[in-house]
Amino acid sequence: RNPWVPFILWPVQRQLVDALRESFYKGEDILISKSRDMGASWLCSSFLHWLWLFRPDTQVREMSRTEDYVDGPTSKSLFWKHDAINVHLPEWMRPPNLEKGSKNRTKLRIHNELNGSTIAGESTTKHAMSGDRCTVLLLDEFSKVDDGQLIRTATADVTPCRIVNSTPSGAGTEYSRWKNSGQIKVFPLMFYDHPQKGKGRFVLKDTVKGTYHISSPWLENERKRRTDREIAQEILAEDLETGEVFFDLKML
């Protein structure tokens, strides 16, 4: 079976692309609050790749928690996705000299010599992006980086548009504080908008919290094979339940 298929977007994915484009042209930050397996990383990579292809002199920067997550040999790497997109572009659309090791595809850098646009990356350290300026910046898996507060502060002057893409990793992270600060636009990319996982969705009352939430037959089945913390972090994108607390909500 061929693993490469056309990237035909679901309705919620089209809405996210519109939101990314709006944030870019308005010069504002956007945070994606997401469940796993919603295609967010590919969507961000594709959107930034589109800018790199068609918008002259665009400086794209991408950051993730380690250098291998930025430009490594596996599909979890951001630049691996860019390389895959380039390989599958029609020849007339693909800029020249993009083979690895060529002048336009060096470590942590992809340059479009036809329009002067560049995608460059680095790992998220407290000194990252020091002195740099760019058109748009992707902060990938931001909840899991060290020195999150320093990175958030330092990158504010680097670009007018930061795209924050992550699942939560506890209530005490800078990602969680930023998401709940009211200072950034938040786009929910949740399981219930997945065409299979959200099929037959319905509303349930949480007897512990006294609140209502959206569920589906798929999610109720997943509760039988996953822990509450895993459900909260990977599927519901909740901050508090994913943290290391002595008493969890159910116990209280």
Overall radius of gyration:
19 Å
Structural class: alpha/beta
Chain-averaged pLDDT: 90
Strand order of the largest sheet: 3-4-5-2-6-7-1-8
Would you count the extended β strands for me?
10
The helix/strand order is: HEHEHHEEEEHEHEEEHH
Q: Which residues sit in consecutive blocks of at least 5 with pLDDT less than 50?
A: none
| First-to-last CA distance | 49 Å
Range of helix content: 25-40%
**Shape, per Cα inertia axes:** globular
**Most strands sheet:** 8 strands, mixed
Describe the protein.
This protein is of the alpha/beta class and 252 residues long. 29% of the residues lie in helices and 19% in strands. It has eight helices and ten strands. β4 and β5 form a beta hairpin. α2 crosses α4. The protein is globular, with a radius of gyration of 19 Å. It starts with 10 loop residues before the first helix and ends in a 17-residue tail after the last helix.
How are the secondary structure elements laid out?
Layout: H1 11-26, E1 30-34, H2 40-54, E2 59-64, H3 67-70, H4 78-88, E3 105-106, E4 109-112, E5 117-123, E6 136-140, H5 148-155, E7 162-166, H6 174-179, E8 185-189, E9 202-205, E10 212-215, H7 217-222, H8 228-235
Parallel strand pairs: 1-7, 1-8, 2-5, 2-6, 6-7
Antiparallel strand pairs: 3-4, 4-5, 9-10
